Amino acid sequence: MKKFITKRFLQMMLVWVLVSIISFSVIFFAPGDPLYMYMTPEATGRKLTEEELQAMRESLGLDGTAVEQYTSWATKMVQGNWGISLTTKEPVLNEILKKLPATIGLMGASLILSLIVAIPLGLIAGTHKNSWIDNIISAITYVGVSMPAFWLGIMLIIVFSMQLGWLPSSGMRTIGVVSNWDVIKHGILPAIVLSLNNMAVFVRYIRSNTITQMEEEYVQTALSKGIGKRGIMYGHVLKNCMLPVITTVGSRFGTLVTGSFIVESVFAWPGLGTLGMSSINNRDYPMVMGITMFSCTILLLGNFLADLLYGIADPRIKIGKE
Amino acid sequence: MEKLLQVKDLKVSFHSYAGEVQSVRGVSFDVGVGEAVAIVGESGCGKSVTAKTIMGLIQTPPGEIKAGSEILFEGTNILAMTEKEWAQYRGASCSIVFQDALAALNPTLTVGRQIAEKVMLHTKVSKADAYKEAERLLTLVGIPNPAKRVKQYPHEFSGGMRQRVMIAIALACQPKLLIADEPTTALDVTIQADIIDLLKDLQQQLNMAVILITHDLGIVADVAKKIVVMYSGKVVEKGSNTDIFYRSKHPYTQALLRAVPRLDADENQELESIEGTPPNLIAPPVGCPFSTRCKECMNICQTQEPPEYEFEDGHICRCWLYHEFAQGNKEA
Fold this sequence. Notes:
The complex is a heterodimer of chains A (322) and B (332). With 322 residues, chain A is an all-alpha fold.
């Protein structure tokens, strides 16, 4: 167990370093300049001289080659200094931690929602293979997989916020109102939009698992013991179906992170996604790097936890024993 | 002997895209109380389908049990039972042991749970008592250290031990009939004998009827008093084990017996095999199904199905060679 965890942590460190190098280069070589934010429009104001620009670059740590900049960023990062945001002048880590609860809440809610809906739907579709109910569920999942989240978000806003006026269209709180119910009301639409894609994937996965498991011979054995259909479903098939789903949930963390960027932008949800989008637009390099590395960590930890859980849940897998 | 099970003119088909596969085409045989019967035949002859039909494990559709088929268990036609009656019959009156115990056991449940669940289903006992019963059954099938073993999962057992677990599950609730569907095919040769011995011991000890399904004539001689030989969905010959081993009548049975390797055979003697393949059951042949591979085939065999000929007490053979006009062809 200890050996497994150490091994996985070393692997995670490697991935982490690679991700940081790749995203740093992408940002560095992408067009755009953070100094642009400090300039007044050319038509109305005075143009900054080259010396002034150079001085600004130095003060922001943007002088030097890519390698120099990366090493300086990485050294500080390892020491716990994630840099200062170029736009807000606040420490990056503080900003991220401030926005974190909103995003974790949204991601958690959408993950739970997608599982709660997907497990029964997947089981029903799998046990009623090729019936009308399976066809309906499958049609919904195809829509769920192929519909872009931003479009669905906008449609839901139009219907539920603008036409019906049931739910707020953006933000996380109504100004002046302090209640959990208010936050939940704001979160319903974003959570639905964020969960739809994962939900569809889970349904399809659980459905196909159920179909394969129902054809396994142990189902015949259970039947030959005199166990009824329901008993076989819940006592025998369910556990075997759900075990691989744990790994799938882990691997869907990536979609959850990228999805939250889009969904948060559409609904102006004040989380990491919105922060990330605005820092990309503002060429706020330290902030973009910080958020990228943070999301990467969430993803890696998610996969790691899924593997650990799988080992605990499935008796055939003993983690750390070869 | 009092009859426990009577299979009468059983016909089972499966509907597939290619057409109707007539797996079992009119099979009849009896099993007495506490009697051991073997059903022998090569792959696809319908022996497993027959077993699964007795157990009520044929899915309909795609399967279809034809009208006119009857399976009487203690006088009741089980094919006419309701789903609820089936649930009471399966496991409590009749049990099955499958070929591949690794696939037939649920990989994610402990062995104890898989036995105890059946005990709790058919008898009103507490969970603790059901696990006690599971331990007793594991001891009965020869698994040492049962108190520890009940808490283990199927993958922690060896192949032979897993098959013993399957037998323990089948024995729970004292069924009157145990069907063993190729119980040794997936096992090492050395373990095969152990499992067959175990089945034989249990059959005698518990006075339980056993239907042993196999393609290996070598293993049935020891266990079964009565042997049913099946070919392409039909019973071609049935009789006592001495009838089959020493006085076999059907060319197919005789060919099967010649195909069993013998320890006392000459070193250079080639092992015999039966040429050709069994007929396609989507369009079964008109005459005798074995006619295409039979070395003694006559003209009538290809056009008309042979009737049953009965010899001394219950030895039955379906072959034209025993028609009075064919006497010249056969040195009896």
